[in-house]
Amino acid sequence: MIEFKNVDFEYDKERKVFDRLSFKIEKGESVGLIGANGAGKSTLMKLMLGLLDFKGEIIIDGLPVNKQNLSLIRKKIGYVLQNSDNQMFMPTVLDDIMFGPLNYGHSREEAEKIADEALLLLNLKDLKMRHNHKLSGGEKKMAAIATIIAMKPNIVLMDEPTSALDPYNRRKVIEIINSLNYTKLIASHDLDMILDTCDKVILLGKEGIAALGNAKDILMQKDLLEANRLELPLRYYYKSKL
Ligand SMILES: Nc1ncnc2c1ncn2[C@@H]1O[C@H](COP(=O)(O)OP(=O)(O)OP(=O)(O)O)[C@@H](O)[C@H]1O
Ligand SMILES: [Mg+2]
């Protein structure tokens, strides 16, 4: 469903982010993307959305990421960016959630019904008519997640979906992620959330992929995690202290 083949990317000559990066994510897999600050998690997602120029090949559901395919590819991908300010661009929360369904050809009435269902599922009905730029950080994040629910995409990209969320909303988002049968790629430092939602993990290190495999196997390796500026998820950390 997602394939990177020898992808090279740099923002500038001093800052090479990926050097021949290759990996594959199969349909229906839920994959955690982890790594230190600056490892390239957000960059990897922006590459998939065609927001940055790169060398090599990225294939999404059979389509190479390039200018011609961009609008088709963006219809397949629902995403939550790390900074939700950059993605909510309509005046109200309702307008933003309706944007996807309208884009898929639904009438305004149908689109509002779909938006209402998404808001209900996330327990966000009070946010419906609020102005995006007047929401708190966590409220904005939740509203961005509602846009994905309404869009019913093939692929979900979430960059730090639980950062800024209170414990109730964090738990809610974990439940929602687990109820979505899409192909999912989730970047986060919340390794307990990754354990709760992902079957596989890609660990980005200084020289590309430091580990790729079963989520539990990788997230139990204290030395591997610490070598990459991470720590054991809390549930393993406390077990190791007993
Ligand atoms: N617009 C940009 N211009 C130049 N360099 C950038 C830009 N955006 C990111 N970088 C650099 O690219 C590298 C990868 O950044 P990226 O945002 O992908 O990291 P990340 O893994 O998402 O980090 P974090 O955990 O902090 O979210 C970093 O060294 C960062 O400083
Ligand atoms: Mg990031």
Number-wise, the strands total: 10
What small molecules does the structure contain? adenosine-5'-triphosphate, magnesium ion
CATH-defined superfamily: P-loop containing nucleotide triphosphate hydrolases
User: What characteristic shape results from the CA principal axes?
Assistant: globular
The secondary structure category is alpha/beta
Helix-residue proportion: 25-40%
- Largest sheet geometry: 6 strands, mixed
Low-pLDDT stretches: none
Topology order in helix (H) and strand (E) letters:
EEEHEEHEHHHEHEHEEHHH
Question: What is the CATH topology classification name?
Answer: Rossmann fold
The domain tally reads: 1
CATH 2nd-level architecture: 3-Layer(aba) Sandwich
CATH hierarchy class name: Alpha Beta
**Order of the strands making up the biggest sheet:** 6-7-8-3-9-10
Radius of gyration: 18 Å
Strand portion: 25-35%
The residue-averaged pLDDT reads 94
What structural keywords apply?
single chain, 242 residues, alpha/beta, Rossmann fold, 6-stranded mixed sheet, 4-stranded antiparallel sheet, globular, binds adenosine-5'-triphosphate, binds magnesium ion
Description:
With 242 residues, this protein is an alpha/beta fold. The chain has one domain: P-loop containing nucleotide triphosphate hydrolases (Rossmann fold, 3-Layer(aba) Sandwich). The protein contains ten helices and ten strands. Strands 6-7-8-3-9-10 form a six-stranded mixed sheet, with helices on both faces. A four-stranded antiparallel sheet has the order 2-1-4-5, with helices on one face. A hairpin with a 2-residue loop joins β1 and β2. The radius of gyration is 18 Å and the shape is globular. It starts with a strand and ends with a helix.
